[in-house]
Amino acid sequence: MKRTELHVVVGAGVAGCLAAITRSRAGYAVVVLEKERARFAGTYPVCTQTSNIVSENHSGAEYPFDPQSARDCLDGRIVNDRFFPELIYSGKTYSRIIASQSMMTDGHDIVGQCRANMDVIRSHYAQRCQEDPANAVFGEPSAICREIPDVPGVLDVAAGFLTPQRGMNPVLVSTVLDWELRECGVDFREGSTVTTIDRRADGRYLVEYTSADGSAESLIADQVSLCAATAAFGMARKLNPALNFPRLFMALRGILYVDLPDGTDKNFTCLKLEDSYGGMLSPLNEHCAMIYHPPAAHIMNVVMNPETCEFPVEYRQYLTAGHPEMEERAERTLTRLRDFYPELARSEILGTYLKVAINTVSDSRIRRNIGVFGVQPGATMTVLPKWTMCVVNARTELRLALEHSVVNGNIEAGEVAELLAASIRSCWETSPAWADSVEACTDQARKHAINMRVPEVLALRFGNRADSITAGGSGSPDGNRDISE
Ligand SMILES: Cc1cc2nc3c(=O)[nH]c(=O)nc-3n(C[C@H](O)[C@H](O)[C@H](O)COP(=O)(O)OP(=O)(O)OC[C@H]3O[C@@H](n4cnc5c(N)ncnc54)[C@H](O)[C@@H]3O)c2cc1C
Is 11 in the pocket of ligand 1 (CB under 6 A)? Predict the structure, then answer.
């Protein structure tokens, strides 16, 4: 690079972390501005917001109602497999997609729909493998999905499907991203809330933010990457009032972590389709699971104001003070899912989380990639409808950044392809010394669980003993070990 450009990334969810890592690998100097602060000294507050309740690395199997959503997710899953280390799966195998018997009895051919979707996944994967043999990360296309005769330990099953969809553990994702950000030499500024971004006459960006000590700070960046989830729309619109967004839905959702006092023999996610017949049991390890049941989880769905791009006022209030129906809805979820999953009989709720999902339609059965917006030359916006699409979108936004550097004369056009490929290489190629010790790795993950305000028991992988979670550490440095948001 002829002149090292300074790039500012706003937000350190999975989208921002990936933007920072890939831009830094490409040779840019990168500053991340993240409004949250770490609750555990020596860690970065990464994935503390929506990215802290993610449990599925989708393959499209969950979207039998929309082939394009299935294809988008499979593309994400393929590149994620090459980017993330095995650690993030925490001993989980594949996910079982389950068609409910009650849904069939009620006249919906969910089994037929799932079978048709398996064909969509197989043929899309075959096409991707043909385009590039390196995409063959799940083996032979004909063998990547199959119907399984039964799903032991789950009630009300008409058919089960094994697919490349794979559950992962958000705490271990943060552990990996924190290490990789350090490896890349990213300048991570926590407690930094971006207030305004303006494009200067020279084409660079003035980024103003409030720092951790409350003082007003600013940076002049060659390029900016807006990864601040719902807040990114307003930032982008201010930079370019002519920008056209699709109709955007902000869905307020409730999701729970529960304990598993009787353990579980399922080191995989069970996803039952659909709505009142459905729901998800995603064990993170033998001691804890994430659960979700659509009718109780789907609280509200508001269309974003296309002019102001403002976040709905009532959402702000609910995310701060809680929703009045939150507890009742959480109990309803647990009670309903006990009908499907016997291991929940004695479970208790460890934490209830309110989150906002972003989509281009009101129907959650469709989840197409929103893509990356070129806001202005040198400014991109990445808002993920699904975690699964994080690497696909990071590659797109890096390409836009590199192309802008070509225009600026800082890199040669011929360098773009090579820089792109090198920057999307796997994480964990040089792994930390503690990666080889399960105990040390669990201790790192536990610190992130505290940062992310999720139960510390998430730090365990399948096969870890539950008492190892308390053996090595003293808990949160400020003594605040609450597990709810
Ligand atoms: C209930 C639920 C379950 C889900 N489950 C899955 C799943 O299993 N699989 C899947 O693929 N997807 C899932 N998703 C979607 C997934 O959670 C999101 O697509 C993804 O986590 C979004 O990541 P992000 O980085 O865009 O946003 P976030 O993780 O929200 O990160 C945005 C960051 O920006 C920071 N920020 C905001 N404003 C500012 C500012 N002004 N200055 C500085 N920083 C700022 C925030 O603090 C935050 O850290 C789920 C969503 C919901 C709601």
Answer: yes
